[in-house]
Amino acid sequence: MSEHRSQNIQGKYLTPFQRKLLEKSLQENLATSYRQRIEIMLLADDGKSQTVICRRLGCSPATVRHWMHIARAGMAHQWQDCPIGRPKTVNDQYIERLRELVNSNPRDYGYPFRRWTANFLEKHLAKEFGIEISDRHIKRLLKQMGLSTIPRKNQPQDQPSQPSGGSKILIGNLESKTTAENTNFLFTQLEQA
Asked: 59 and 107 in contact (C-beta within 8 Å)?
């Protein structure tokens, strides 16, 4: 787009820095949708109306309205922050790595804690794969694999385990005995005024 005005004239919405950044970005090999975003903001900054921009670029009024709003809000320099298309989805490699992580110690990866949480699994995998999903989705994936971040008890609670090697003390079958002798209550009657 060669008809954009020179940098020394103040535009309607963009700062000189933003205009220069957008014009420079137009020189790069961009996807059509990204190029369209930039052109919308530059044309809006030139004072073109929504109708004129729609006609010139062949895009919907909603798209033009959105990117005009971004320019007006002073966020034009963040034009790449809204990715185009469906978000990336997990693949077999991601699932396998999740399985490896949940079965390993987080300290091996430099974390100060001993057990993974879904939140930290999500953050760690986002760094490795660039795929951001919610910790709730991590929990669903773990459940599908028969795994969990919650520690399992090795044996049922009714059958206490036997201590190994004599170094542990096992206390079991303790029942609370509440008798009248050791439960002294003081009863008082409050007078109403």
From this structure: no
CB count within 10 Å of CB 17 equals: 11
- Which residues, 6+ apart, have CB-to-CB distance to 172 below 8 Å? 160
- Rounded Cα–Cα distance for residues 38 and 115 (Å): 46
Q: Which of 91, 8, 90, 57 is nearest to 68 (CA)?
A: 57
pLDDT tens for each residue of 2-46: 445 444 457 888 989 889 989 998 888 888 888 999 999 999 999
Buried b (16+ CB within 10 A) or exposed e, 124-134: bbeeebeeebe
Smallest CA-to-CA distance from 22 within 4, 48, 10, 49 is with: 4
Lookup: tokens for 137: 């989705």
Q: In the structure encoding, which two tokens stand for residue 141, read together?
A: 């994936």
Which residues lie closer than 8 Å to 139 by C-beta, 6 or more apart? 118, 148, 149
**Structure token pair of residue 135:** 């910790």
Which helix or strand (DSSP H or E) is residue 33 part of?
A: helix 32-45
Query: Which residues lie below 8 Å from residue 136, measured CB to CB, with a gap of 6+?
Result: 118
| CA–CA distance, 4 with 42 (Å, rounded to integer) | 7
Nearest 5°: CA angle at 25, between 23 and 28? 125
The model scores a pTM over 0.85: no
CA distance 151 to 102: 11
